[in-house]
Amino acid sequence: MGRRSVRPHSLPLAPGLLPRVILAELWLQRRNAVLMLLIVASVVAPVLLLLGLKTGVVTAFQQTLLRDPRTLEIDIVGARALSEDRLRALAADPRVGFVVARTRALNPTIDVAGPNGDLVSVVDLVTSGPGDPLLPPAAVQLPAGVAVWLSATLAEGLGVVPGQEVTGIVARKSGGPNSRAMLALTVAGVLDARAIGHRAMLVGLDLALAAERFRDGTLDVLRPAPVHGMAVAGMVAGARLYARGLRDVQPLARSLAEAGIETNTRQQRIAILLRLEQELAALLLIVAFSAGVGACLALMVLLWIDVEHKRRELAMLRLFGLSPRAVAAIPVAQALLLAFAGALTAGGLYVPAAALFDLILRRVAVETGFRCILTPGAYAMVLFAVLGLGLAAAAAAAWRAARVMPAEALRRR
């Protein structure tokens, strides 16, 4: 009879044996474990600082741009006739943050008299509605009907505050003597000085259309009639249009240009910020990749040496019935644990370092508002990247551990 080769077989593991072995190995080799943990932390902490600084710089520039509502404005040039269907399509576009019909650009003005008799002539009528970027986010009463918002310049000239009444005066001349219509208006609020710098009044589309029709002679009494949504009769002479975000301004303006609608935007300022964000992201990626490769190689060497150092112990585990896969899992699990602990340590180091960075930035750049900002999502992304680095570093050591044979346990050192 021929001799059969007997292959070592794996025995079922006692519950919790492998985790205990992994933790026991880490404790026995705690000096090496601390060294690997510090390698990870020393690489990840500077990356976290750079990421926080990049996010802080970009966020500060974004806030500076967005404080000016005109940044997201897409100004339609001239009196461009727009149909109701076009307005509805713009309102449904996900890139649009706000849109409202605008009456004729030739005569969108009104005279306003204050409660003390002060008269301010030629006040711009600006159509508004829910979600208007010019309005404060916490605005309770929106421009609609006889409720209006005044620019800071106009409110100061009239000497009024929210809650008071002013009188709107619209004049017309239709082949005979001039006629005027007056309407009592309630000041719902006063705009921030940065929203509109000149004398202007934010009104609902209903009041703007009523003033236009009174001038045209198609309306005898200045009285706002309800306007539902984008429902306007026929064509309107343009729209007030704002993009939803900084990245939406250029694509939206390009789409309008393809439709034959000329626009003006502040894309040049936005492009500077977006280019800065891209360059900072590229710089951060280069630094993180270089540091990650170095840390991965260092961990790979240390894990390999650790496996070589305890080959006999691993062979004993094989002799006791652990499979090659279970033995290979030991350096992998240890590397993942150390990578996780190193990332947590780096997070702890980031906190005081970021506070120091913020202190320095406040001293050298007070007006910019720069500071380190590390979001939970960004830290989670770094944590997963570090775990991936630990897994890659352990691959060679795991391969080496899996090739340890049980017979090596019987050899003398």
Task: Describe the model.
There is one protein chain. The chain has 413 residues and is of the alpha+beta class. It has 10 helices and 10 strands. The chain has helices spanning 17-28, 30-66, 84-92, 152-158, 205-216, 249-258, 267-309, 311-319, 324-364, 376-402, and strands at 73-76, 96-101, 109-113, 119-128, 147-150, 165-172, 179-190, 200-204, 239-243, 263-264. Strands 3-4-8-5-7-6 form a 6-stranded mixed beta barrel. Strands 2-9-1-10 form a 4-stranded antiparallel beta sheet, covered by helices on one side. Helix 2 (30-66) packs across helix 9 (324-364). It starts with 16 loop residues before the first helix and ends in an 11-residue tail after the last helix.
- Strand residue percentage: 5-15%
Shape: elongated
Structural class: alpha+beta
Q: Which oligomerization state do the chains in this entry correspond to?
A: single chain
> What count of helical segments does DSSP give?
10
| Poorly predicted sequence stretches spanning 5 or more consecutive residues | 1-11
